[in-house]
């Protein structure tokens, strides 16, 4: 017996101890799971789930109060689509435990201050909205919420703050009113009227120079593209006119009104908006994307009007669902389709409009472009009977409005459409778009179809594209992506350098070294020089022609073959391109040889920049050179330019990071030396300091050099834009013709695109740009783009 008892103690005692240490963690995980999942699909009603959860949390408050506070503050910030569910839960807890309610409000205010300090303005917005909904749950007293809103609106009176700062505080107040406007107006109508009057006065005097730069369409018909604050103010004004009635927000607290109205309320501590600081990064203004109205959804529920507050609430909630679940496309699609109140609205139309609104958002979409493609594919799988039809209708509408669509958005549209088609066997009713066949090829519709087919070919192969498209579209089908070798056969024997190509070809086959190749190339005559001139080191275009044409031809089988060829003969290529002219010419040769295969041109140039055969400025100069005039408006050209600028920016950031790391290391060593009294150690430390200081000096020089290169790249790009646009405007004025051609629209919007896509980097060089390029003498059409850009961060 004693032996068994002993083993029982041993066997049972140890696990029991382990369980005791892990039990709090298990309970904390369970609490987190219960709180995060409340309001999701359940056999019981939401109200009974909330009541049950409030009971569980109340029982756990004595031991896990801090954990519960932390979880509730986090979900208020990160799960805004379940805002009213959590505000009701906090209301129920406050009714049962007044002190906990007070601590929660204090935690929320503390968190609001931290998010504003950390430039997390979206999260701060959700916290403000949550606090305002706590008024409905009788947690916060209405007068103190109004006082907080008054403090927010006082920001518009500041003299030296940027407009984007005022915009955020105004938006924070306006976007909370659909939830709490009625309650605040009933309790504090005079003060609320004053707040709305101040907002109206601010909106009237507010600058809106930036709007054209952010609009998806330049035309105001069929749907006006409104600035976001103007649109929201109109929606709130209509709501006020309708006596603050709103029929779309889920309000679970109404069921608990008898319990909640007995609860004691808390006053918000005085909240003063933190002063403006130079490192504050406020959200950029937006333009509201509109694609559908009630006439587009023929059957079923009616779509709310653009100025009804329901439209704002639905769109806001759908944006929040995407923001919370965008990393998991299946979850995101399921959450969107199980949206509460979906039977009261044409949900598929709202979802499609919101997704395209995000995809086309300028300057950048909130998430990577491919996420929207995969999300729409997932939605089509979940709703095969209805969503593909809405998506096809949206695609048709966008195609019909291509003439007035922003060029950056056309890029995103064609990227999405070609990727989407590749997932559905490239099936499309191409005959419906046959109107593009009667138009000039530089017009938006034929251009779009041509680019879509070219992009589709990247995701398939040439013959497949030929087979899927009707025969009458042949003019828009991309060329067969074959290499154009100008030294192909005997008929090319009269070309200068032909004999050398045979020698080069044999040398490559025989695995000759770089030096042996260079020796062969020495015999190539220089067409830029007289016969009796000594060649010296001057640039010889024929050498580049002969060598690179032959090398690329022999490696034309695949990307990998081409990359290996560039790597193997890197030394030869570097010696041929040691001048700016040489770098330009090597790009010309790549273009001539692969002009039927834009993707190959893109990847080869990318590789040449990475291996420093060409530099970023050379690529920019080549794109704007007369050689590229024929392809200047083609999509792949701008893909190359943006990729080049991004590479330059990443290079600068990498060196800056290395410099910061070295400085931090030196600082740590200095503080360690202060704390240590060891002479021997101090001596070693001095040596290390000396080495680090040298490294910092070298890195400082590298950073300055890289920044100078970066600034030069932007100067080259903007200078070339200005020259081309000015020449076009002068030519049109002299000839008495309209300057607003498809080429001009494309070019001016590409200029906008450079500003928008690289706005954070360009802002560092604003003074230089203003002094050297965007001066008052510049044509006002071009200068307007620069002024719109400046207005974005005003």
TrEMBL record:
The UniProt record lists the MIF4G domain at 28-240
Q: Name one Pfam family in it.
A: MIF4G
Q: What is its main location?
A: nucleus
Q: Where is this region: Disordered?
A: 1-24, 663-690
Q: Which InterPro entries match?
A: ARM-type_fold, CBP80, MIF4G-like_typ-1, MIF4G-like_typ-2, MIF4G-like_typ-3
Keyword field: mRNA capping, mRNA processing, mRNA splicing, Nucleus
Name assigned to this protein: Nuclear cap-binding protein subunit 1
């Amino acid at each position: 017996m004693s032996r068994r008892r002993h083993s029982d103690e041993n066997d049972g005692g140890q696990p029991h101890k382990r369980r005791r240490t892990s039990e709090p963690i298990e309970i904390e995980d369970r609490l987190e799971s219960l709180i995060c999942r409340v309001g999701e699909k359940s056999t019981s009603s939401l109200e009974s789930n909330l009541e049950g959860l409030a009971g569980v949390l109340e029982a756990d408050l004595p031991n896990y109060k801090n954990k519960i506070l932390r979880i509730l503050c986090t979900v208020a910030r990160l799960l805004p689509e379940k805002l009213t569910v959590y505000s009701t839960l906090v209301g129920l807890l406050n009714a049962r435990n007044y002190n906990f309610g007070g601590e929660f409000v204090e935690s929320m205010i503390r968190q609001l201050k931290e998010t504003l300090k950390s430039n997390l303005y979206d999260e701060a917005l959700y916290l403000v909205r949550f606090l305002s909904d706590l008024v409905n749950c009788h947690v916060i007293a209405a007068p103190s919420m109004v006082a907080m809103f008054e403090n927010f609106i006082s920001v518009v009176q500041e003299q030296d703050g940027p407009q984007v700062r005022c915009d955020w505080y105004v938006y924070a107040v306006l976007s909370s009113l659909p939830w709490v406007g009625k309650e605040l107006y009933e309790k504090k109508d005079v003060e609320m009227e004053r707040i709305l009057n101040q907002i109206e006065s601010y909106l009237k005097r507010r600058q809106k120079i930036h709007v054209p730069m952010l609009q998806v369409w330049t035309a105001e018909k069929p749907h006006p593209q409104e600035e976001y604050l103007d649109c929201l103010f109109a929606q709130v004004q209509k709501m006020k006119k309708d006596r603050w009635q709103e029929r779309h927000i889920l309000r679970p607290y109404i069921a608990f009104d008898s319990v909640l109205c007995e609860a004691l309320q808390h006053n918000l501590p005085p909240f003063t908006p933190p002063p403006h600081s130079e490192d504050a990064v406020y959200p950029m203004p937006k333009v509201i994307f509109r694609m559908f109205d009630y006439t587009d959804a023929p059957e079923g529920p009616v779509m709310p009007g653009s100025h009804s507050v329901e439209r704002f609430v639905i769109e806001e909630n759908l944006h929040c669902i995407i923001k919370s679940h965008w990393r998991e496309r299946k979850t995101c699609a399921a959450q969107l389709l199980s949206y509460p109140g979906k039977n009261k609205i044409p949900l598929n139309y709202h979802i499609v409009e919101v997704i395209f609104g995000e995809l086309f958002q300028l300057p950048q979409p909130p998430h990577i472009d491919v996420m929207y493609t995969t999300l729409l594919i997932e939605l089509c799988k979940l709703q095969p009977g209805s969503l593909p039809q809405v998506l096809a209708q949206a695609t048709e509408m966008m195609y019909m409005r291509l003439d007035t669509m922003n060029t950056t958005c056309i890029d995103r549209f064609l990227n999405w459409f070609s990727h989407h088609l590749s997932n559905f066997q490239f099936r499309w009713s191409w005959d419906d778009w046959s109107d593009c066949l009667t138009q000039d090829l530089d017009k938006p519709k034929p251009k779009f179809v041509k680019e879509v087919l070219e992009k589709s070919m990247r995701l398939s192969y040439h013959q497949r594209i030929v087979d899927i498209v009707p025969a009458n579209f042949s003019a828009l089908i991309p060329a067969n992506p074959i290499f154009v070798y100008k030294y192909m056969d005997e008929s090319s024997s009269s070309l200068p350098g032909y004999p050398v190509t045979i020698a080069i070809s044999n040398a490559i086959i025989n695995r000759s070294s770089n030096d042996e190749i260079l020796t062969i190339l020495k015999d190539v005559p220089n067409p830029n020089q007289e016969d009796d001139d000594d060649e010296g080191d001057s640039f010889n275009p024929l050498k580049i022609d002969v060598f690179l044409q032959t090398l690329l031809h022999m490696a034309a089988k695949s990307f990998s073959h081409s990359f290996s060829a560039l790597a193997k003969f890197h030394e030869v290529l570097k010696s041929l391109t040691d001048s700016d002219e040489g770098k330009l010419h090597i790009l010309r040769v790549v273009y001539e040889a692969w002009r039927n295969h834009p993707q190959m041109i893109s990847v080869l140039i990318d590789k040449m920049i990475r291996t420093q055969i060409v530099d970023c400025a050379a690529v920019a100069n080549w794109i704007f050179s007369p050689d590229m005039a024929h392809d200047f408006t083609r999509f792949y050209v701008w893909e190359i330019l943006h990729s080049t600028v991004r590479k330059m920016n990443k290079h600068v950031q990498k060196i800056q990071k290395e410099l910061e790391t070295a400085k931090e290391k030196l600082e740590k060593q200095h503080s360690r030396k202060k704390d240590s009294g060891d002479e021997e150690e101090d001596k070693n430390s001095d040596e290390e300091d000396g080495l680090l200081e040298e490294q910092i000096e070298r890195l400082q020089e590298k950073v300055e050099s890289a920044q100078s290169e970066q600034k030069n790249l932007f100067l080259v790009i903007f200078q070339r834009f200005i020259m081309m646009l000015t020449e076009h405007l002068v030519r049109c004025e002299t000839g008495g013709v309209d300057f607003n051609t498809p080429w001009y629209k494309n070019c001016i919007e590409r200029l906008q695109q450079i500003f928008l896509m690289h706005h954070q980097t360009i802002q560092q060089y604003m003074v230089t740009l203003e002094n050297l390029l965007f001066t008052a003498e510049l044509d006002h059409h071009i200068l307007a783009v620069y002024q719109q850009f400046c207005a974005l961060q005003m």
